[in-house]
Structure formats: C-alpha cells, structure tokens
C-alpha cells in the first residue's frame, strides 16, 4: 500500500508541528524518516494512522483518505508508537490474546507465529510483562502490530533506548519482515546508520517540512557530489567512523548544528 501526504499542516496552539509537509512512500518500500527532536515525526505518524487529523492538507494510505476511511485503514496498518504500555499482570502471550480478540482475529496460530517472528522464546512469552526488559517490550509491541498481517507497518523510533545488541536484533527482525512480506514499512529514527542499513528510501524531516527525499543511494550520492566538504566532515568528523553519504545529505538538509546533535544521538546507540 502506498502512502501519500500532501501539503499537510498541523499545529498545537502556537507550535507548528507540520508546516506544509508532502511525502510519498511507494508500496512495498522500506522508508526511513530521519529527523532531529521535535522535527514532527511522531505527529506525522499519528496522522498516518488517523489518531489525529491534519489542520490542512491530505493524508492517504492505499489511495484512501485517512480522515474519511480511518477505521478501514487502521485494520491494514500496524502502528507501533514510541511509548507502548502493557497491563502488568498479563504474560506476553496473554497480551497478544487480548489484541487478537479485540481486533476480532481468528484463533489460527497467529499468536505463536508472531512470537516466533519477533524472536521471543515460548518461555519468555509466558512470563509476565512486568518483568520484561526494554528489548522484550519492543519485541512484544512489534508482535502485537504483526498479528493482523498488516500491509503497512509504521514504527515510531523502534530502537530508541535499546542497547547495541538489542538494536542489531531488532534490525534483523525488520529485515526478515521486509524480505518475507510485501509490507510497506515506515519508521523514523535519529540514527542515520539504521536508515542506511534498513531502508531503500528516506526523507529528511526538519521543522515540520521534508527537506530531502528519495532513494537512499541517490540521496547519499547527490549530497556527496553537491557538498564534498560536508561529506568529508560529516562522514567521519563527529563519530570517528564513516557513516556514508546519507549523513552529508542530512547535514545539507538540516544544517550543521542539527546534524551534530543527531550524530551525538547516533553515538549513544551505535554498535
Ligand atoms: N500533543 C501535543 N501538544 C503540544 N505540542 C505538541 C504535541 N505533540 C507534538 N507537539 C510539538 O510538535 C512538535 C513536533 O513534535 P513531534 O513529537 O512530532 O516531533 P518528533 O520529531 O517525533 O520528536 P522526537 O524525536 O523528540 O520524538 C514539537 O515542537 C512538539 O513539542
């Protein structure tokens, strides 16, 4: 399912979260949205699943307007918010059971399949979620959104707060999903390396607008050609490792200071 946002504007009181944002995500792509804190990523995701409405502009998923067809779209879209809570008294498997029942999904082995897909062991699935680590909670969250076999996965900073091993393991799960299904996957991140690893396309979001968008290779190559000095400084400067041309595209789009802050974020979670 493709996703289109056109001239989207969203304000909260005096704060303009999205300021004429336009974006197209082709069906079946793995699309990374990179942005600094407050760029508007979570706001955009809430609009994409109809949890909030734009003040102006349109958002469509699979050609259907989200503000008119929200309920039907949400049946086909798996949305993993940045912060997800589970009832403490339940086991992981029971949480999935509640989600299955609430969504009216059949008892056809999909819970066991989702548990296996996200790499939770049977023993872990039968433990109470109150004892889950952050990484296990993320896996369980992903399992809940996989239950209906969604056509679109929207993941809001899915690796934030995970340790390097947890990040790697989560990446491997997403890679497997993108290889084995036709799902369109959209996720946002501060970390350029994970967008380079997982995505075929990306957009740089800054101050509520898309500053650059396209295939990851082209974004990286275009910026390297246009700004060789930025590439040199950005690729190896703050992080001491070559993060590739996407960092140059990001610097070009958001400016040095914002890019430096994002590089620092990346340091915290990079292996
Ligand atoms: N419910 C809300 N009420 C008021 N302001 C909000 C609300 N939601 C978002 N904002 C503001 O809108 C702007 C965009 O926020 P948003 O959470 O979408 O950014 P983000 O890119 O997801 O940031 P982060 O990386 O920190 O999660 C920020 O200035 C934020 O403070």
Automatic annotation (TrEMBL):
Residue span(s) of domain ABC transporter: 3-232
Keyword terms: ATP-binding, Nucleotide-binding, Transport
ATP-binding recorded as keyword: yes
Region of interest (Disordered), residue spans: 222-248
Gene3D superfamilies membership: P-loop containing nucleotide triphosphate hydrolases
One MF term in the entry's GO annotations: ATP hydrolysis activity
Sequence ranges of Low complexity compositional bias: 222-238
Organism: Halorubrum salinarum
Name of the featured protein: ABC transporter ATP-binding protein
CDD domains xref list: ABC_DR_subfamily_A
Similarity section: Belongs to the ABC transporter superfamily.
InterPro entries per UniProt: AAA+_ATPase (IPR003593), ABC_transporter-like_ATP-bd (IPR003439), P-loop_NTPase (IPR027417)
């Amino acid at each position: 399912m493709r996703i289109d946002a056109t001239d989207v504007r969203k304000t909260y009181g005096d704060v303009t979260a999205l300021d004429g944002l336009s974006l197209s995500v082709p069906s079946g792509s793995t699309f990374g949205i990179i942005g600094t804190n407050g760029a508007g990523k979570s706001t955009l995701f809430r609009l994409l699943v109809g949890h909030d409405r734009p003040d102006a502009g349109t958002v469509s998923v699979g050609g259907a307007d989200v503000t008119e067809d929200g309920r039907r779209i949400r049946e086909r879209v798996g949305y993993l918010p940045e912060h997800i809570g589970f009832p403490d008294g339940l086991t992981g498997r029971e949480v999935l059971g509640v989600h299955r029942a609430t969504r009216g999904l059949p008892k056809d082995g999909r819970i066991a399949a989702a548990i296996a897909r996200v790499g939770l062991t049977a023993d872990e699935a039968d433990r109470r979620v109150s004892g889950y680590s952050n990484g296990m909670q993320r896996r369980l969250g992903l399992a809940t959104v996989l239950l209906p076999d969604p056509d679109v996965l929207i993941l809001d900073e899915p690796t934030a707060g995970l340790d390097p091993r947890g990040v790697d393991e989560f990446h491997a799960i997403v890679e497997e999903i993108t290889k084995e299904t036709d799902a369109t996957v959209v996720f946002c991140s501060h970390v350029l390396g994970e967008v380079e690893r997982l995505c075929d396309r990306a957009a740089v979001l800054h101050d509520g607008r898309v500053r650059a968008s396209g295939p990851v290779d082209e974004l990286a190559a275009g910026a390297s050609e246009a700004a060789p000095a930025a590439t040199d400084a950005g690729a190896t400067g703050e992080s001491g490792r070559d993060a590739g041309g996407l960092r140059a595209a990001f610097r070009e789009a958001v400016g040095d200071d914002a890019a430096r802050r994002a590089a620092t974020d990346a340091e915290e979670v990079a292996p």
